[in-house]
Every structure is written in C-alpha cells, then in structure tokens.
Sequence to fold (391 residues):
Amino acid sequence: MIYQCNHCHRSTFETYCSQCGSADAASIPPQAQQGLTPLDPSFYPDFQYQSKGFLKDIWGKKKEQAQLNDLLNNVLRKYSELKQPYFTNFIHTTRDPVGAGGDEAAVPGARMNGIYSERELFREVLIRRGFDELEQLPTLLDKLLLTTAFNSVYAGFSREVSRHIKSDLASSLRSWIEEAGTTFRADLALFYYYLWESDASSPGLQFNPQAATTTGVPLLPVQTFQSGLGLCEEIYFDILVERLGSQLEHFNPNRFITMYLVDAMDGFQFEAFLVEIFQTIGYDVRETQKTADQGADLFVTRFGKTMVIQAKNYSGSVGNAAVQQAISAKAFYGCDEAMVVTNSYYTKSAKELAATAVVRLVDRAGLQTYLDDYNQKLIEVFQAEAEAEGA
Fold:
C-alpha cells in the first residue's frame, strides 16, 4: 500500500514518514495533522486486529477479526457507494480543513442557537443515507476524507505522469523530473505506484504483490527505493548541468529576465509575471480578483495538487502577515498547499510560522531558481526557432 504523510505530504510505502517521523498508528488522531493516510481505507489501523496478549489472542483473535472484517466490508461498501459524488465533491467545496476533525463531544443534530460546521452537516448527510458506522467510529469520517483527498491527488498525478512513461525506467524518470523538478523527492513513491498499478514495463523493479493486501509490507524494499531516489538525484543533477551549459551558450541579456527587472516591477506586474513564470514551467495557473481575494493572488496546479500563492514584491523583509494570509487562503479555498513568493527575504518569525503551518516560502534565492527555469524554457524556444530556421 502507498501512504501520504498528513504533515509533509510526502508519499511512502512504509508505515512511517522518514521525513518528519509521522507514524501510521491508531493512537495518533487525524486532527493532530500527523500520521499517514493510506490510498486504500482498508489499511487504517481501525480495521486491523490489535494484539491483546498471547492468551487473549488465542481465544479472542479469530472472533474479533471476523467482526472487524464485517465492519470493514460494510464501511468499504458504503464508502464506495457514496464516494461519488458526496465525498469527492465535499473535499473540493468545503472551507473546513480536510481531516481536521470536529467536536465529537457536541450533541449531534439541531441545537438551540446552533453553529454547525460543514463537516458536521456532511456527517449528517451521510448518516441519513445509511452510513451508520460513522456514529460507531468517531474518527472514521476524517480518515475517509483524507483518503478521498489522497485519491484525488493520485488521480491528478496519474493523468499527468502517464505521458512521461518511456521504454525504460531512467528515460521515464528523466522525462518526469524535467517537468516536476524537485517534487520527485516527495512523489517518487507515487511514480513507482503508478508503474505498478498500470503494469508499465519497469525492468529492475521487483514489486511485492503481498503489499496490495498486507499491512506493513512495502511495495518496494527500502534499499530499492533509496537507490531509485539516488538515481533521481543524479538525473536531476545532470538536467541542471545541461541547462546551465545551454543557458551560457544561448544567453542573450536582451531577452532574459533578471532579478533587477523583477525589483523594478510594481505589485500587479509582479503577480502577472509570476503567472507567466508558473505557466512557462508547466503549471496550470488561475488568477484571483484584485480585491477581496482572501489572501490569494493566484492558484497553480500540477500533478493533481493545487497551491495558493501570496505574492510580495518588497524592498524590505516580509513578515508574519503574508504567511497568515497564505494560511487563511489555503483554508478558505481548500487548496493542497500554500506558498509565499517574494523578491526579498523573510523575518525570523515569518519563517517560524511558515514551518509550523507548512507554508512554503520562496525568498529572493528561491525566486532566482524559478527565474532560471523560466529563462531555460526561453532557451529551448530559441533553440527550436534556430532549428526551424536552419531546416
């Protein structure tokens, strides 16, 4: 099975996240924004027998496992029936953070002067359609929402990555990494999972078929996965070297964007330029209205993940306010990620807040990396034009 870390969003075949240490444990509630979300809800610990000691296991394990199997079958059947349209549409329309939990101590249903969250109302919608197990398992709804969101991410990833599959693994990885950039570090497990699920030819990869049905059995051995990650780093390094060589060969200062030109832009020009940058490097981009944007300047989508961006063209340091706007926009619009982009730098408190809230910060150095990618795309256009003229 494949999991996604609820904290850093890295995909993994293990039952823990090596990046931030989150574990797939029943004792970790989803509202703590920790733990792992399986692509298949049957892999949640709720449906796995928990040992109660040798003697009790001898007498009670078979009966309890049968009860868990019955519960799981009922949950999976009802989830399958209600996933479309209810779960899928809810994660795309709700303003509540997906999987953030709720006040289970509150009396469900109508209350005097009641204030009802979208999650609470959604829970009632499902119960009225026969999903009674949500009353029996208080955290089940949040887990199913997280799994639905992960499935949505994987569906988008699959659509995008399918065009990168070549005749051999190295060529497939290179094609993908050329577009995805450093996101391969978080999404490599998704890439391998797609190869396994689609039966794509992948010599050298020995997938474990038991992983599809057995908790704790990784689809690939840890050593194989780490070797693959090393190969990806080598591919990425080669891409960067080749791009730099090409840039030096074809550089034309009159046609390239430098940081000094960015510094001279006003706020609206900076936002418009970010739209052009993200479109050029392969994102689908949607701008927001210029006023009452709830802290969002633009939305970018790639490989099934949508990120809200707050743009700050400053001469001084960027503080907490920009990060708070990004946090609010992510929650308001239900995005997968949030980012603040500036041509300047961030205060210490802004960095601390961003680290806690998992907001990506792109400072002047990071923006230069995006500029390099943007200019590299221009180089490729120049090369194509030169080849067309010489043909």
In short: The domain at 259-390 is CATH 3.40.1350.10 (Trna Endonuclease; Chain: A, domain 1). The CA atoms of residues 54 and 342 lie 59 Å apart.
